[in-house]
Automatic annotation (TrEMBL):
It comes from the Bacteria. Gene3D superfamilies: LysM domain. It comes from Nocardioides baculatus. PROSITE patterns: LYSM. The chain crosses the membrane at residues 27-50. InterPro entries: LysM (IPR018392), LysM_dom_sf (IPR036779). The keyword NADP does not apply. Residues 62-111 form the LysM domain. Keywords: Membrane, Transmembrane, Transmembrane helix. This is LysM peptidoglycan-binding domain-containing protein.
Length: 116
């Protein structure tokens, strides 16, 4: 008679945990080092955001008070000497940070002075 012996195919091994543990001071050092690296990278990358070294020239403007029934189109058409009413409207909206074209009577608007 023959005998059969089986050897186990899978031998479980014990899982070793790392013996390195961070103390409270170690976690603080890791956090502050990471924060320093991030802030340094932000500072270096933001340094290239400078447009020019010279001051810009302000756009010449005047103040116009809105009368009852005035529209932005009418005010822009009075100013636009070259016929570009939409361009002047965009300039007025940009200068006054308007969110819409609605105006209120008595409102003061900064409008561009167009020189030819």
């Amino acid at each position: 008679m023959s005998t059969l012996s089986l050897a186990p195919a899978f031998v479980p091994t014990t899982v070793r945990r790392s013996t390195v543990r961070l103390t409270r001071r170690g976690r603080l050092v890791v956090f502050l080092t990471s924060l320093f690296v991030v802030m340094t990278a932000a500072f270096v990358l933001a340094g290239g955001a400078v447009g020019t070294g010279e001051a810009g020239q302000p756009e010449p403007t005047e103040i116009v008070q809105v009368a009852p029934g005035d529209t932005l189109w009418r005010i822009a058409s009075e100013i636009a000497t070259d016929g570009d009413v939409r361009g002047v409207m965009n300039d007025i909206e940009r200068l006054n940070a308007l969110e819409s074209t609605g105006l209120a009577a008595g409102q003061k608007l900064r409008v561009p002075v167009l020189t030819d």
